[in-house]
Amino acid sequence: MESLEKLVIQLRQKKQEATKLKKKAEKQLKETRSIERRSSSGLNSIDRKIESEREDVSDTSDILTRKTSQLESIERLVAVAEDRLTREKEAIEQTEQEIEFSENPEEKEENEAKLRSLNDSVQELIAEIKSRQKTAKKILDDVTQYSNFKSKITSKIQKQSKSKPSLRETMAKSHKVAEKFVKELERRTRAEDSTKKALEKVSGKFQELLTKKRKAAKKAADTKKRKAAKKAADTKKRKAAKKAADTKKRKAAKKRPTKKRPTKKRPTKKKAAKKRPTKKKAAKKRPTKKKAAKKRPTKKKAAKKRPTKKKSRR
Predict the structure, then answer these.
(1) Intervals of the chain under pLDDT 50
(2) For a surface tag, which of 2, 20, 118, 135 has the fewest beta carbons within 10 Å of its beta carbon?
């Protein structure tokens, strides 16, 4: 019984230890899986970001190509306008010389009209050149901005691409550690199940022994109670029998003296009468109460009758 109880205690402690180790393995596996999931999630996130940023780079490149084409076109137009402006200015100088050396008023008027037309054309060309240069400057600013944006995205892609190997390494390492903890958890689970089965088996035997012991104790207690009850009943019967016998004896003893009363009544009265003179001596000591003592002769007779009652009670 004691060995079984010790074995139950040992198995319970072993089960608690196995459960503790199992929980520890579960916690370690959970943490490792979490690291692996974070690494995988980080890789997927980086891949998505890189893909999105590459799309941004592609869009920016298209915009830059378009802006560069516009800038080159404007620069060509400005160059053409500047060439025309140079020629127009040369024509103005020539026309001014012709006006200066014109021989008649009609020729002079024609040259002056030509000069006005050339001046107007020059002004238009200057305005056109200024407008195109302004547009070219704006496009150039856009090109610079998009180029900077493209450079930032490209450097970001490169940085994220560099972080991918470390994440892959962390994920691979976490996966290996997780597999190790899975095996550890399986081993701990088997140990816990084995200990649990052994504990259940031993506990069942221990409970059976306890049940048998309780039944035996109960049976012994019932037997003891029955014996005590039987003994009490026997004692009660003996006491009742003894009491009945004593009562019978007392009744028999009482019946015998009642038959002899007529013969014994007279001497008892004489003896009782002889015993009372003591009261008369007490009365002589008090002269004032002598008369009171003489006035109660009836009490003397009553005193003579009392001894008979005492004998009957005996």
Answers:
(1) 259-260, 263-275, 277-314
(2) 2
